[in-house]
Amino acid sequence: MEEKKVIRMDEHKNKNKVHKLSGKKILLGIVAVLILTVVIIAGTCKTKQIKISGLSYYTEAEVKKAVVENGYIDNSVAYFLKCKIASPDLLPFIDSIHVRINRPDTITVEVKEKKRAGCLLYNGKYVYFDKNGYALESYEKKYDDVPLVTGLKYDELVMQEKIPVKKEKVFSYLLELTTAIDKYNLPIDQIYIKEDGNALLISDKITVDLYNKKDIDIKISELAGMLKKVKGKSGTIDMKYFSEDHKIAVFQPKKS
């Protein structure tokens, strides 16, 4: 006959108890490791230096001040993780940031700035606006490569709100102009918006009449050479008959 194996109830209970204790020990071990990791990070990763890169207009001091005042954590790993979860809003024309840990005590905040569509002179200050026409910053200083926009009709400006003009499409047009001007490094001081919505570009004593909104990139690229030829003169470059196929522009000297 087959021998029957007898299992005592107290032995079965003891085995379960051993398994349960092992599971608790593992869990306690994981918790202990996590706590130890947090303690080590807190003790060794205190940030002593913040580096800033990728700036076009803002200064390092402005960005550092904004970093510290907007949810900053004085620990390189903790701040890195926080920015991975939710990037802080620093300054109006900062599109995004990327945080890198150089050393346990040093981080680099890499900044990507938004393009400024232009600026207006209002109450003695330069008001910078974005492609959607929102007035986002007001400074006494003017950035050299952001053209001053004149000719726009509005009653008043309110910061962080849209500039109240009738034709809102003018702002996307201005961004197209300023992007092309920056691309070809043209010395444009001012953009004057005429009543029909088209633009005059002013460079020193030269006025450029773009006539319409067609072929902007081509017109601006050709202007680079034209402005060099008339440097030091006064007058108007008329681009009424300019097109991609017929690159014709007429220079009309200013009558003395």
Brief digest:
Keywords: Cell cycle, Cell division, Cell membrane, Membrane, Transmembrane, Transmembrane helix. With 256 residues, this protein is α/β, with parallel strands linked by helices.
Characterization of this structure:
The chain is 33% helix and 24% strand. Helix 4 (170-183) crosses helix 5 (216-229). The protein has helices at 9-44, 60-69, 76-85, 170-183, 216-229, and strands at 49-53, 94-103, 106-113, 118-122, 125-129, 135-139, 148-150, 190-193, 199-203, 206-209, 235-238, 250-253. The longest helix is centred in the first third of the chain and has 36 residues, at 9-44. It folds into two domains: 49-113, membrane protein fhac (Ubiquitin-like (UB roll)); 118-253, Rossmann fold (3-Layer(aba) Sandwich). With 256 residues, it is of the alpha/beta class.
Short key terms for the protein model shown above:
six-stranded mixed beta sheet, alpha/beta, Rossmann fold, 24% strand, Ubiquitin-like (UB roll), three-stranded mixed beta sheet, 256 residues
Structural class by helix and strand composition: alpha/beta
- What number of structural domains do the residues give? 2
Distance N to C terminus: 130 Å
Number of helices: 5
Oligomeric assembly: single chain
What's the CATH topology label of the largest domain? Answer: Rossmann fold
Q: Please state the overall shape, judged from the principal axes of the Cα atoms.
A: elongated
Organism: Anaerostipes hadrus
Domain POTRA: 47-113
Protein name: FtsQ-type POTRA domain-containing protein
Pfam family, one: POTRA_1
Topology:
Blueprint: H1 9-44, E1 49-53, H2 60-69, H3 76-85, E2 94-103, E3 106-113, E4 118-122, E5 125-129, E6 135-139, E7 148-150, H4 170-183, E8 190-193, E9 199-203, E10 206-209, H5 216-229, E11 235-238, E12 250-253
Parallel strand pairs: 1-3, 7-8, 10-11
Antiparallel strand pairs: 2-3, 4-5, 5-6, 8-9, 9-10, 11-12
Helix pairs in contact: 4-5
